[in-house]
Amino acid sequence: MPCGRNGIRPTMRGTQARIVTLKEEHPFFKGVYLKVLQMVNYSLWNNIASLSQMKKRGRKIGKLRFKSASRFRTLNYNQSGFSSTPGRVRSRSQRSEPFPLRLYRPYTKTVKGVLITRCGDTWYVIIQAAAVIESTREGRSVGIDVGLNSFAVDSDGTAIENPRFNERSLNTIRKLQRSIARKQRFSKNWKKAKSRPEKAHDHVTNQKRDFLHKLSRSYVDRYRTICVEDLDIKGLKETGSSKGLHRSIHDLSWGRFYSYPGYKVLSAGTQVIKVDPRNTSHICANCGSIVKKTLSERLHECPYLRECYR
Questions:
Q1: Residue-by-residue pLDDT tens, the chain, 310 positions
Q2: Quick check: 137 and 224 in contact, CB under 8 A?
Q3: 3-state secondary structure (DSSP) of residue 90
Q4: How far apart are CA 215 and CA 228, in angstroms?
């Protein structure tokens, strides 16, 4: 990290203490609750630490981008600065009136934090509350293998069709993006045109989330143990030269699919086990011998078949 003023390298504690003086220099900061500003500082240093670790592991990384006020969409009230009742939330720092919200799922126990985030023209409130963890229940186990042709195939033989949400919306989004270039920058028509691709992207994101939530919920409700491959998804995107492969992996959102059962199992008494993906496509299920195959080969033929059944 480059040195700051007077050749002093900035630290997390130093920038945290700087928030107090920034409030004196810029009065508009006084309208923002202190915890919100502290969480912005925490996120900044957390991102810097993550990039540093990735660089040490040999990953190709870029640089942190400046996020202007127009691109900053989330307020994180961590532990304090808010008051909440079922169906209403109030920010204490702005002394605002409690604003109503549409509660999709009731929460129990103590509220630990509140995130207020904007997605397009819609505002969302994410309430972090203590969860009630149930005891482990009985049931079957299942293994899930994600792919490109089918979104996933499980050990029971069920194949989940790839919905291809990005691919279906790609032409529409491209047309909307081209229309922005024909408008005068920062004009009313330019602002209207700029909001249309954002809404289209939000629609695709909501489609993905709905599909992945329903799919992960169906597995969590039916099985006691869910086994998935511990894939290096970011590494798969970075390796190779095929842009189509990178786009397909990004469209499938494997990482998000793996994370959804991860937190659902906490309240369902289920467990998720990540398996080392090495040779999982080459090992014979009967004898355990390794039979090398290319990516195009979808059928396993064991040369030691007779020995398997002796």
A1: 555 566 678 889 999 999 989 888 888 888 888 888 999 999 999 989 988 888 888 877 877 788 877 778 888 888 787 777 766 776 665 555 667 778 877 777 778 888 888 877 788 888 888 776 665 667 789 999 888 888 999 989 899 999 999 889 999 999 999 999 889 988 999 988 988 998 899 899 999 999 999 999 999 988 989 999 888 887 777 665 566 677 778 788 888 898 888 878 877 778 888 888 887 777 787 777 888 876 556 677 777 765 544 4
A2: yes
A3: strand
A4: 14
Burial class (CB within 10 angstroms; exposed 0-12, middle 13-18, buried 19+) of 120: middle
CA distance 310 to 161: 37
CA distance 99 to 1: 41
Could you give the 3-state DSSP secondary structure of residue 93?
A: coil
Q: Which residues of 142-175 are buried (b: 16+ CB within 10 A; e: fewer)?
A: bbbbbeeeebbbbeeeeebebbebbeebeeebee
Locate tokens 């969480």: which residue? 39
Relative orientation angle of helices 165-181 and 243-252, to the nearest 10 degrees:
110
Asked if 9 and 48 touch (Cβ cutoff 8 Å), the reply is no
Whole-number Å distance between alpha carbons of 237 and 297: 22
